[in-house]
Amino acid sequence: MLETENLGKTYPTGDEALRDVSVRIDGREVVAMIGPSGAGKSTFVRCINRLVEPTTGSIRLDDTELTALDDDELRDARRNIGMVFQEYNLVERLTVMENVLSGRLGYVSNWAALRRNFPPEDVERAYELLELVGLNGMEDKRVDELSGGQRQRVGIARAVVQEPKILLADEPTSSLDPETSRDVMELLTDIADDRDVPVLINIHEVDLAEAYADRILGLHAGELVFDGSASNLTDESKGVIYRGE
Ligand code: ADP
Ligand code: ADP
Question: How far, in Å, is the centroid of ligand 2 from the Cα of 38?
């Protein structure tokens, strides 16, 4: 369960990127966050994984208050947050398996640790995940030999191998063609079901959000102006989310 209460972020530049955003995301819900460029979507995600320090409000992940952690606690808490990125953020010269296993290290950039032996159960879990994301047999390929869609599947497997309490995807389809984008959205919804984990996806393609998400959050200028099911996202609500565009 992820719950933000009155989450706000004003950057030192004075840009108010988020204002009083309160949402609760539970279970195996697939939630798409939409809104025009600059609405605050990536700021929201970055506040949750604490790459950005919120100015106001609170963020709870199950029983942990994420805004009140010291560095050690933050490192542990981040293991519970799976991140999928627009540009995949993989290590190009490493193999698929090495990239997936790196998820077990959390976000400590200790690549030397990759070279030590991983426990067999981690390797076992990584194989299972490669199968789940449709990359079985590709464990020894170097990432720089893969297509964009395959890279994103590696990115998803890496995020899930750490058994997160929530999966966050920041524009996961923006670098992909439309067909591959649909495949990736479908995979994210499968992961939510298979792993019983909520998935929050930042996305600017409204049609993909409507087709794959259970629920849609609409941001406009840092404010949550829509929170409802995809079927309730009317042309009028789209007009509110994208007003001025
Ligand atoms: P989105 O992901 O919806 O495009 P962002 O979260 O990237 O929106 O940006 C929201 C607002 O915050 C924008 O006005 C943007 O210019 C501003 N912003 C984002 N990152 C920074 C930053 N590091 N410093 C200052 N302003 C920022
Ligand atoms: P996106 O819309 O996909 O978030 P942006 O082009 O808005 O991408 O942001 C790219 C990078 O620049 C991000 O790291 C963001 O935090 C930073 N950024 C965005 N707006 C500003 C700003 N006004 N001042 C400083 N940094 C910014």
Answer: 8
Long-range contacts at 9-16 (CB < 8 A, ≥ 24 apart): 9/40, 9/43, 9/47, 9/52, 9/53, 9/54, 9/55, 9/56, 9/222, 10/55, 16/221, 16/222
Q: Between helices 120-132 and 148-161, what is the axis angle to 10°?
A: 140
Q: Is the CB of 13 under 6 A from ligand 2?
A: yes
Q: What is the pLDDT of residue 191?
A: 96
Nearest ligand to the C-alpha atom of residue 38 = 1
Is there an atom of ligand 2 within 6 Å of 117 CB? no
Distance CA 124, CA 59 (A): 33
The model's pTM is 0.88
With beta carbons less than 8 A apart as the criterion, state whether 67 and 143 touch: no
* Backbone phi, psi, residue 64, to 5°: -100, 125
| Burial status of residue 4 (CB atoms within 10 A of its CB: 0-12, 13-18, 19 or more) | buried
Question: Ligand 1 mean position to 108 CA, how many Å?
Answer: 25
As given in the structure block, the two tokens for residue 216 are: 């849609």
The two beta strands, 30-34 and 215-220, are parallel
Checking ipTM against 0.95, whether it exceeds it is no
Q: Whose CA is nearest to atom 16 of ligand 1?
A: 38
